[in-house]
Specification:
Elements lengths: L15 E4 H4 L10 E5 L4 E4 L14 H25 L3 H16 L13 H22 L14
Antiparallel strand pairs: 1-2, 2-3
Helix pairs in contact: 2-3, 2-4
Amino acid sequence: MLQIQVKCQYCHKLARLTTGAEVWPNSPGLGHKKVWKCDRDDAWVGCHEGTESPLGQLADGPLRYARIAAHEAFDPIWKIMASVKRWDRAAARVKTNEWLAAQLGLPVDQCQFGGMTYEVCLKATALCRALKDQLLEKYGVPVPLGAPDFEPI
């Protein structure tokens, strides 16, 4: 069996496999999840469920926060579209992801928040917030909780 090795994008040293219990000690529901972590840079990334395969690249604090903000700006869009167009949730997420990939100039299969750089996250957040505002103006539908206020570091 092939052993997975994950390198830190900051120091280029090998990361170690740990669990969510170490990374998120105050979130017991995440304790069982597998996580790759670089102690030197305090960078980590979760794994695909039931595997040791990373969801993307390791992220330090600023990048983690940028990815969270981008994802939280993205979610209201597909929820609005599911409601307005009466698409099922999965179709709405796929179509919204296709839109974001096109806006970012990425292949759809590479438009994943876990693989985005800090700069791409900032752009994705701005694009998603602008589209959300346009959709709210056009359709006037309430939106579930969106992204928190986020300012680049």
